[in-house]
Design a protein that fits this description.
Number of domains: 1
Structural class: mainly alpha
Strand order of the largest sheet: 1-2-4-3-5
Distance between the termini: 22 Å
Number of helices: 11
C-alpha cells in the first residue's frame, strides 16, 4: 500500500505543483519543443501514477511487489482489532473505484471529442476539395487575405489562400513550413488531449491550464521548426503579415496569438539549445517529469518506515 499512497501523492504533486515549475521552461533561449514535451510528459506521468495507484490498491495485501518498496501493511498491525483490518480494505477499494472512475470519465470525454473532431475534419476536407484546387500538399483557396492553417489527422492537410502570394517567397515558404511542423509534430492531437484533460479534470491546475499553454507552445515549436529551415527573419515577417480570420477553430493556424511572446522567442532562436537532437525532446522530458514522482514515492516510503519504527519503539 505504501507504493500506492506514494503514487497518489506524486500524481497530486504533479497536478497541483507542476504548472509552477513548468512555467520556468517557457522562456526564450530554451527550445520550445522541450517545454511542450515537458507539459505533455507531466500530464502522462500524472495519469500513469493514478492508474498504477488504482491497480495497486486492489491487489492483495500480501503482494510481494508492494512489500519490496513499502511497509505500510506491517504498520496496520498496530491498529488491528480482532485480527481484521476491514476499514483498510474498504478504503483501498473505495479509493481504487474513485480513481478508476476519474480515468474512465477522462476516456469517455476523449472518445467524444475525438469522434467530433473526426466528423468535422471529414466534412471540412470534403467540402474544400469540392470547391478548391489542390496540389500535392496544399489546398489553395481563392481568397485575397493571406491565410494558412493545417488540419490534423492520419491524412493531414494544409489549407492556404492565394493571398500568400503577396508575401515574399521566403515568407511564404516560412508559413508553409510552420504548418508542416504542426502536422509533423502531431500538434493537433496534443491540443485535443489538453482540451480533453481540461474538460474531464478541471479541478486539477495542470489540466485546467493545459489548453492555453499547449496552444501557445505548439505555435512556438512550429515557429522554431520554420526558423531552423528558413531563418527567424522570414518567420517573424510572416507572423506579422498573416491573418487568421479564415481559420476554423479545430484547425491550427499561424495565428496572431501571443505575438509578443513568439517574436521574443524568435529573437533568441539562434541562441536556443541545439546540441540535443529535436527527436530526443520527449525522452528527456519524460525523464525530467518522472523525477518529481520518484522523489515523492521515495519520500513517502521513507516517512512510513520512520513512522513504523517510531511506533514499534
Amino acid at each position: 500500500m505504501t507504493l500506492a499512497v506514494g503514487l497518489l501523492l506524486a500524481a497530486a504533486m504533479i497536478g497541483w505543483v507542476a504548472p509552477r515549475y513548468l512555467s520556468l521552461a517557457v522562456t526564450p533561449g530554451l527550445r520550445p519543443g522541450l517545454a511542450l514535451a515537458g507539459w505533455v510528459a507531466s500530464a502522462v506521468t500524472m495519469l500513469f501514477a493514478i492508474a498504477a495507484a488504482a491497480v495497486l490498491l486492489v491487489l492483495p495485501g500480501s503482494t510481494d511487489f508492494d512489500r519490496m518498496i513499502g511497509v505500510t501493511e506491517s504498520c496496520l498491525h498496530v491498529f488491528r482489532a480482532g485480527g481484521d483490518v476491514t476499514w483498510g480494505h474498504m478504503a483501498a477499494l473505495g479509493g481504487a473505484a474513485m480513481l478508476t472512475g476519474l480515468l474512465g470519465w477522462t476516456a469517455v470525454v476523449a472518445v467524444r471529442r475525438l469522434r467530433g473532431q473526426r466528423r468535422w475534419r471529414r466534412r471540412h476536407l470534403t467540402l474544400l476539395r469540392m470547391v478548391c484546387r489542390c496540389d500535392s500538399s496544399v489546398i489553395w483557396l481563392e481568397e485575397p487575405a493571406p491565410v494558412a492553417y493545417s488540419i490534423g489527422g492520419r491524412r493531414g492537410a494544409i489549407v492556404a489562400t492565394a493571398g500568400l502570394h503577396q508575401l515574399t517567397k521566403g515568407e511564404r515558404e516560412a508559413v508553409l513550413a510552420h504548418e508542416r511542423a504542426h502536422l509533423r509534430g502531431r500538434h493537433h492531437l496534443l491540443v485535443l488531449a489538453a482540451e480533453v484533460l481540461a474538460a474531464a479534470l478541471p479541478f486539477v491546475p495542470l489540466c485546467r491550464r493545459a489548453p492555453a499553454t499547449v496552444r501557445v507552445l505548439v505555435e512556438l515549436a512550429a515557429d522554431a521548426a520554420a526558423a531552423r529551415r528558413h531563418g527567424p527573419d522570414p518567420v517573424r515577417a510572416a507572423l506579422l503579415a498573416v491573418s487568421t480570420s479564415g481559420a476554423p477553430q479545430p484547425a491550427l493556424a499561424m495565428s496572431r496569438e501571443a505575438v509578443e511572446v513568439r517574436l521574443a522567442w524568435l529573437s533568441h532562436e539562434r541562441a536556443a539549445v541545439r546540441r540535443l537532437p529535436v527527436r530526443l525532446d520527449y525522452a528527456l522530458a519524460a525523464v525530467l517529469a518522472a523525477l518529481p514522482a520518484f522523489a515523492v514515492v521515495a519520500a513517502t516510503g521513507l516517512a512510513v518506515a520512520l513512522y513504523c519504527l517510531g511506533v514499534a519503539g
